[in-house]
Amino acid sequence: MKRFHIALAVADLDASIKDYSARLGQPPQVVVDGAYALWRTELLNFSICREPEQPGKLCRMGFLDDETHDVTRDTDVNGIPWEQFSTLAHDLRMATAYGVPCYAPGDDELIRN
Q: What does the DSSP 8-state code read for residue 10?
């Protein structure tokens, strides 16, 4: 499955998790306390990271595509970083950048916490 990905910087992670959970109609699937949250919907892969000095900054856009084996990165004509990556590559990068995540249990998977 290929999903659009967007990543934003936020000032207050907890308040942003509450707000975006209401907007997306579901809680995040992944949270790294104090640093990061990720929602995976059928069409959208949406993440936020705590950067209080730059709230609202568009960090990057791209596509989560499980057919992809590598992470590809480039920059569009407006200077916005774009990436294409698999779920596994994204999870590994997230753990490296933000720390050990806490995963919400899915209906069809084992709990990974």
A: E
| Residue positions counted in the chain | 113
- Domain boundary assignment for the chain: 2-103
pLDDT tens digits, one per residue of 97-113? 666 666 565 544 444 44
- pTM metric for this prediction: 0.75
CA separation, residue 99 to residues 17, 36, 95 (Å): 18, 9, 5
Domain 2-103 of CATH type 3.90.226.10: no
pLDDT tens-digit series, residues 59-73: 989 998 878 878 888
Number of neighbours of residue 68 by Cβ within 10 angstroms? 17
